[in-house]
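Tutorial, part two.
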Amino acid sequence: MKTVQNLLLLIAGALLCLAVQGFLKPRPAHAADQLGSGTVCTAQVPAEWGEFRGSSIFGIAFEDDNGTLRFVAHPPCGTDSSSNPLPAPTVDLLIERKPQ
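Running the prediction step on this input gives:
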């Protein structure tokens, strides 16, 4: 009888540990939760800058058809609801391919 009680106590303790771990485990946040219902910052870059290529310590990068890379460290921020056009971003680093 004592063995059964110890076994049940052990199982109950294991279940309690699993329940606490699941309760304390961080849950993934969804973008909508993070942004809330407030205004979202929007930045625009000219289409001539080409495709988005990623980001680095220099900023976000765009590559045009000629292979020129443009890095924008601090894009201007506006809102979609604004009737005013967003300011043009400033290129912080420009890398051009050297002609051969």
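The CA atoms of residues 15 and 64 lie 57 Å apart. In part three we will examine how such features are distributed along the chain.
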